[in-house]
Write a structure and sequence with these properties.
The protein is built from one helix and no strands. It is low in regular secondary structure. It has one domain. The radius of gyration is 16 Å and the shape is globular. The termini are far apart.
Length: about 100
């Protein structure tokens, strides 16, 4: 069953309700009311938010005042390596003959 997690470390947020703007992760200290933890966050759309009522928030990993925030429920799979970065590094190694 999907649960709510810190976007940074995966700590499970089991407290009822939504986190306040100043609430931090009990494990890593990262902000919890951030775009990266919101159900509307989508890196593939304009301003990276599917909710058109919101104002642009440039720092997606920092606490904000968005009144439309809703903590996403998901299965935590860990941050894992960035596939694009790995691919770019492999291509560069090939190019340079490493």
């Amino acid at each position: 069953m999907p649960t709510r997690h810190c976007h940074n470390c995966g700590w499970e947020y089991a407290i009822a309700g939504l986190p306040g703007r100043t609430e931090c992760c009990h494990q890593c200290g990262g902000d919890l009311k951030v775009c990266l933890n919101c159900i509307s966050y989508d890196p593939k759309v304009a301003q990276q938010c599917r909710d058109k009522r919101t104002e642009d928030v440039p720092e997606k990993h920092m606490a904000n005042f968005c009144e439309f925030f809703d903590f996403i429920r998901r299965d935590w799979k860990g941050k894992g390596p960035d596939k694009r970065e790995e691919s770019a590094r492999e291509k560069l190694k090939k190019l340079l003959g490493d």
